[in-house]
# Entry
Amino acid sequence: MVDLVFAAPQPVLVPVADGRFFPVRRVYCVGRNYAEHVKEMGNDLRDPPFFFEKPADAVVIDDAPIAYPPQTVDFHHEVELVVAIGKDGENIAEADALTHVFGYAVGLDMTRRDLQAQAKKQGRPWTMAKGFDQSAPIGRVVPAAQIGHLQAGAITLKVNGALRQSGDLSEQIWSVPETISYLSQFIALKAGDLIMTGTPAGVGAVVKGDVLEGAIAGLGTIKAEII
# Structure
């Protein structure tokens, strides 16, 4: 028996389409992975991929509402394809990358855009802009064994029924295999890791009372009300 100072946190478990649960270890996010979004944010298309993290307990499941976070007046939505890693690996060859994928989900990378802009200007980390409480709503994980590996398909986000973001997975600058291979050169990927793969153009602000609905063709939807 280990004598804990206090009760250990409960594991973060994302529902899987087959009734099981996916235990989350880490959440990695790819920045600037759709050309039109790169352009709307004023950045260079030639940049290699870069990554930031959200804590596992930032994950929100079951279409639960999310609270408008403090210390921001510019709270933005970003709909993304989420890759669920099911097998450990490091220095993974691109040709082998998809063997490490358990499945896929629809996710929202919620962002305090004003804090992110300040951090960029000051050359500081994005943690408070990206890794805050309830910043990573995730839909149910659908196993790749059930749907295959998604290379194309519409990715959209509606706010109160009005279309805000619209793109196609085929427009990703860095494909899922390329992203997994590149990231695994820097850290050892482990079963339980989630990779949020970037967002198409059309990001924008939301306010309390807004209802967000993200969707990826063939994968499903995610909903979240801002409260």
Summary: The radius of gyration is 17 Å. Residues 153 and 168 are 5 Å apart (CA to CA). The longest helix spans residues 113-122. The mean pLDDT is 94.
